[in-house]
Backbone:
């Protein structure tokens, strides 16, 4: 196999590549934060006029809450009553599964194609 | 220092081999130990205190598999970039590009969460006058100062890490013995905090959901491989350092769970940012409290320090193979560090420290970590198939193959589902990002990459090719 010679990349285009990668990183990390997608499956199950009893805390647990600076049940209410909703959104789960499997299939197939070129050139097709 | 432009080929100065097994331990444990000072406890939020303990051991199994697999492959492929170099030689260039991105994401966001932790911890003692700008100033200072240390040299960086990691670990041991673990009821009240009613508040689904944060007990131990090109004896130091690190972390995680679970109601444990510092407070012993304050800060600094080291080496490796502009592959002629990569990642880390909160930053890091572990499970199978035992010299051969790979793969699938339970949109966004970057690399960027030059190991042709 003939040795592959990559084209010379213009200096400006190299910086464009760097900017593209950085922008993609920021989009991937920042967008879910901006859109409020992060950890959005919690629901505050509000209790009016909460007491330690209605919040399900024993005397020993109340003592620890007090040591931690939570003088009354109202102060601890939001921490105790902020609960996860694990109802499965099947549509979202299927989309995620398809995306993940598709991603890995593409990754390994395209990598293998590139890898064969590497091996062919490295070992001169022997 | 010689100057280079963005077009120039990599400089011929190499990284220096100055590290031993202790440094490998300091790098791995240094990155990870902060997970015991913050993060693991969010597993209690998702599944309850008992779930956090179950997860501690099950995820410990995942990481034991990671350490076993990693020790074999890295002791054979000893190059900076760690798993990136493994992917390049075993799977292919596109996989390697993705693995490097996983590493950069995982470590940079871990570094971000460490900077946030330092600022949050100091804020908890500083009172009302501690404004947003003080908080941001501390975050920026942590990242900049540690980047400067990394710029200055890997030996000094990891010597510092060894000392502060050891202090942070010893602090956990001291706390453990100070609360009289042999005498339940004196200070610890496990039976009162964890009751049959609240042990698993969301049932077994909560246990699975908690896998997400369970990763944080150990995330980053695989970072030891980033030092492969800078250790004196990779075949000896990497397996020893990595396995010693895993043992340290398993002991530390178990102790941490026992102490914290015995002192805090699970709802508080699942929401606090500094569970070990709170454990110190709850002993009502000021010496212990201040010791845990210092140890929390030190553990975060050690982790951020190691993360800067690892993220920069992954980015450097991308430049060296022209996956990104080769400008990034420059090695400092005096300090022998990938200084441009170190500096380049600093503003990115600072920006995210300013805009994200700690559990979001941790989630981003975990997502990349799990993608990375999925690769590792498949990678070891391909490694053994392409170069069976005896065909090349391995520094270390892990036992029970393919059991660790199968366990790792199954636990990764479970963890994806766990992340989906609560953070599904973030996971989908990250996968879309990696798909877009893969298409960009495969159909555009790869044209600038030399083909045969990527394969640098003195191995025979792989079987099946």
Residues:
């Amino acid at each position: 196999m003939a040795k592959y010679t990559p084209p010379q990349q213009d200096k400006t285009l190299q910086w464009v590549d760097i900017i593209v990668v950085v922008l993609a990183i920021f989009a991937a990390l920042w967008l879910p934060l901006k859109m409020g997608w992060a950890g959005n499956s919690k629901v505050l199950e509000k209790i009016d006029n909460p007491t330690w009893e209605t919040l399900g805390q024993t005397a020993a647990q109340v003592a620890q809450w007090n040591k931690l600076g939570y003088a009354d049940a109202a102060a601890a209410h939001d921490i105790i009553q902020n609960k996860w909703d694990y109802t499965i959104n099947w549509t979202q789960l299927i989309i995620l599964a398809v995306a993940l499997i598709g991603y890995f299939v593409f990754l390994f197939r395209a990598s293998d194609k590139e890898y064969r070129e590497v091996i062919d050139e490295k070992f001169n097709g022997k | 220092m010689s100057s280079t432009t963005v077009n120039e080929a990599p400089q011929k100065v190499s990284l220096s081999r100055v590290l031993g097994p202790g440094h490998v331990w300091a790098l791995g444990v240094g990155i990870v130990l902060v997970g015991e000072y913050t993060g693991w406890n969010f597993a209690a939020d998702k599944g309850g205190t008992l779930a956090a303990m179950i997860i501690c051991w099950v995820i410990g199994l995942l990481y034991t598999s990671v350490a076993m697999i990693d020790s074999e492959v890295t002791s054979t492929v000893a190059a900076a970039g760690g798993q990136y170099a493994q992917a390049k030689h075993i799977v292919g260039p596109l996989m390697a590009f993705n693995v490097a991105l996983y590493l950069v994401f995982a470590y940079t966001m871990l570094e971000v969460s460490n900077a946030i932790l330092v600022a949050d911890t100091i804020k908890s003692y500083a009172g009302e006058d501690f404004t947003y700008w003080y908080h941001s100033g501390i975050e920026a200072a942590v990242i900049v100062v540690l980047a400067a240390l990394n710029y200055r040299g890997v030996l000094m960086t990891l010597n510092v890490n060894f000392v502060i990691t050891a202090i942070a670990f010893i602090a956990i041991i001291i706390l453990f013995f100070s609360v009289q673990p042999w005498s339940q009821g004196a200070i610890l009240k496990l039976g009162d905090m964890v009751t049959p009613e609240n042990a698993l508040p969301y049932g077994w689904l909560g246990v699975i959901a908690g896998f997400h944060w369970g990763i944080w007990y150990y995330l980053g131990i695989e970072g030891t491989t980033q030092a492969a090109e800078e250790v004196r004896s990779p075949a000896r130091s990497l397996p020893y350092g990595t396995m010693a690190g895993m043992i340290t972390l398993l002991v530390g995680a178990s102790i941490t769970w026992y102490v914290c679970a015995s002192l805090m109601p699970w709802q508080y444990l699942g929401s606090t940012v500094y569970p070990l510092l709170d454990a110190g407070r709850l002993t009502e012993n000021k010496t212990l409290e201040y010791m845990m304050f210092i140890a929390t800060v030190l553990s975060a600094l050690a982790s951020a320090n190691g993360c800067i080291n690892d993220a920069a080496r992954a980015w450097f490796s991308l430049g060296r193979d022209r996956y990104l502009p080769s400008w990034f592959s420059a090695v400092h002629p005096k300090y022998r560090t990938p200084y441009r990569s170190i500096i380049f990642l600093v503003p990115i880390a600072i920006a995210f420290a300013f805009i994200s909160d700690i559990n979001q930053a941790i989630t981003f890091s975990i997502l990349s970590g799990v993608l990375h572990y999925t690769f590792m499970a498949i990678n070891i199978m391909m490694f053994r198939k392409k170069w069976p035992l005896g065909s090349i010299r391995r520094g270390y051969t892990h036992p029970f193959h393919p059991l660790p790979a199968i366990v790792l793969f199954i636990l990764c699938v479970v963890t994806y589902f766990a992340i989906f339970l609560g953070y599904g949109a973030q996971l989908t966004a990250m996968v879309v990002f990696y798909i877009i970057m893969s298409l960009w690399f495969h159909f555009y960027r790869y044209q600038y990459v030399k083909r045969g030059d990527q394969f640098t190991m003195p191995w025979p042709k792989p079987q099946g090719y």
Summary: Residues 17 and 230 of chain B are 4 Å apart (CA to CA).
